[in-house]
Predict the 3D structure of the following.
Amino acid sequence: MRHIPSITASGFPVNPEIDAARSRDLADELPFGTVIELVPNTATSTRSCELPAVEGSIGYRVITDTMHPRIRNHVDILFDTDTMIHIGGRKLNAARAMGWCNDVNIRIVGRIDMAHLPASQKELQILLGRSTFALSK
């Protein structure tokens, strides 16, 4: 069984509602506290990427964690293990449904003080000064 850490590399408890990890080579561009949004280059699904099926569960994300040194030029989105998506008549965990997506850009939305890390998408939205934001669960 795979061990899932309960603390991020930034020292905060894991929070599947807002956390994202970045590869170490992106540390200068995406330091801890960077708020990002995924921007797909295409709206189509592929065998390895079902981003359109999980977009409503992603929202904005805060870089709070670092990936294994062998991974380069990637961002990983943390999902709650209970978040399930229906695809082609199958029920899949959102992380498995999203898969490995290569045709996605990251847009930097802002930066937050890690001392005031939000606990939810709603709190993150308020910190960013966004008045409305759709997030389906």
Residues 19-127 form one domain. The two ends are 27 Å apart (CA to CA). Residues 40 and 104 are 4 Å apart (CA to CA).
